[in-house]
Amino acid sequence: MASEDVKRSESAVSTIVNLAEEAKLAREGVKAPSYAMLSIFKSLVAGGVAGGVSRTAVAPLERLKILLQVQNPHSIKYNGTIQGLKYIWRTEGFRGLFKGNGTNCARIVPNSAVKFFSYEQASRGILYAYREQTGNQDAQLTPLLRLGAGACAGIIAMSATYPMDMVRGRLTVQTDKSPYQYRGIFHALSTVLREEGPRALYKGWLPSVIGVIPYVGLNFAVYESLKDWLIKKRPFGLVEDSELSVTTRLACGAAAGTVGQTIAYPLDVIRRRMQMVGWNNAASVVTGDGRSKAALEYTGMIDAFRKTVRYEGFRALYKGLVPNSVKVVPSIAIAFVSYEMVKDVLGVEIRISD
């Protein structure tokens, strides 16, 4: 009898445990998908907000950079950061400083959202593969692996939003002498499609793909590696616990932006010039003679590099670097910190470095 009672008790306990597990799985089966979707949505929102805030903060410098990149070397209007900003203010007013920013934000918000989200997913996938390969389940991402994850994120985000970047560039340099007068983003997209074909929306895509690997890859790799090093080593008394201050995180973002943009900048110049092909009558790219006109007609990325260096010298590949440096340093820093702060506000536990 005692043996049968024990068996009955064990059976009852087993049944209760199984029912509890089934109930738990049922609850998770209902909640997990919705929770996952909510987490993804919050992550995308955080990335979008970070991109919009960071780009609006430096919009005047962004426009000046593009104007410096594509201006005709025989008709110089913009001679540097301060002079260029003053010239825009004097000739176009306050609104001129933010021309093209609406289009820029319309592009950068989804771009930033996709970029940060893609980086998190790529990081998880790469880390899982790395742990499986090494057999060390406690292994962490190395700077090189972070560079790879950042490169993947950059390529995905840039490819998804490239047409917006193309028309944003044209809207930014548009004047009353431009060959087309675009009324806005969608009008620009439809006009380019109608007049130049769908391939025109991806002019300069190849140098962008090549440039985004060191640029975005280094941004993420340097930012995370610096944070990781500061938390582990705690130099100069900057870190008292596992959390970095906003100022320290901004400094990490600034360093990341400086390294990434300096290495990738020549490709950004070439991309922008390829996007402006066909805009020889725009005020900022007016050609003074046949030679300068030929320099603006590129058959591809290599040809664009060759003609730029031949007609304007190697320094032309770094036109606009100073205002771009002034822009990128706070922009990248603000983007990283804004992203993490918005995720904190939205209650998303996992952040970049996690």
From TrEMBL:
GO biological process: transmembrane transport
Cited Gene3D superfamilies: Mitochondrial carrier domain
InterPro entries membership: MCP, MCP_dom_sf, MCP_transmembrane
Main location as per UniProt: mitochondrion
Membrane topology label: Multi-pass membrane protein
Compartment annotation: Mitochondrion inner membrane
Keyword Transport: yes
Solcar repeat locations: 38-125, 141-229, 244-345
One annotated Gene Ontology cellular component of this protein: mitochondrial inner membrane
Pfam families tied to this protein: Mito_carr
Keywords: Membrane, Mitochondrion, Mitochondrion inner membrane, Repeat, Transmembrane, Transmembrane helix, Transport
Keyword Acyltransferase on entry: no
Family label: Belongs to the mitochondrial carrier (TC 2.A.29) family.
Protein name: Mitochondrial adenine nucleotide transporter ADNT1
Organism: Cucurbita argyrosperma subsp. sororia
